[in-house]
Amino acid sequence: MDPELLDYIQRRRVEDVAFAAGARIMTEGDRNPPLYTVASGWAMRFKMLQDGRRQILSFILPGDVIGFQAQFFETAVTSIEAITEVSLCVVPHQDIAGLYQEQPEVAFRFAALTADQKRVMEEQLLSLGQRTALERVAALVLDLYGRADARDMVRGDSMPFPLTQQHLADALGISLVHANRTLKQLQRDGLFRIKGRRLQILDAAALEKAAQRPKA
């Protein structure tokens, strides 16, 4: 996280809270939720239909911000659930209201974080609209690896990977069976390996090709 933004959060935070894996951090429609920054752990941002079907919109990693949109809409616009045990720093939402006038440079850094989250969801939208199942998995793996690397979460050539096949299925709009089959195919082809809740990329060039990344 940006050092200046981290310093602001450290000075303004009122408490640290922890959520167990599977715990609901925020529910869509919650009024005036606090602003959270993720100190450790993984979570997911999602929406649900009335019949219980779930669409995971994005995965939340350490350094991400939760609840920034709610500062403008007064209610949470998505639900958030912990995937692993999660530690969060709490910043009162009223502290954000005057931030753009008092410390515009810090407000800009908050905006940059949310812009990156928007980029992640736009990539997700591209996958859901145009990519095949294999391309979707490859693109998601590349995006998560890049985000993890930027947060110094990559050790050697592998990163933490606590996601289940159900998480992948719900994020990518495919069935659980299809997610299982696609993961096996990509690993059998030697593009990456998942073992012991860690993911190792074995052939980055082939993975980029499989993901059909848009040309710059």
UniProtKB/TrEMBL annotation:
Keywords: DNA-binding, Transcription, Transcription regulation. Residues 1-67 form the Cyclic nucleotide-binding domain. Residues 131-205 form the HTH crp-type domain. It holds the Pfam family cNMP_binding. The keyword Transport does not apply. Signal peptide: none annotated. GO terms for molecular function: DNA binding; DNA-binding transcription factor activity. It comes from the Bacteria. InterPro entries: cNMP-bd_dom, cNMP-bd_dom_sf, Env_Response_Regulators, HTH_CRP, RmlC-like_jellyroll, WH-like_DNA-bd_sf, WH_DNA-bd_sf. GO terms for cellular component: cytosol. This is Crp/Fnr family transcriptional regulator. It comes from Inquilinus limosus MP06.
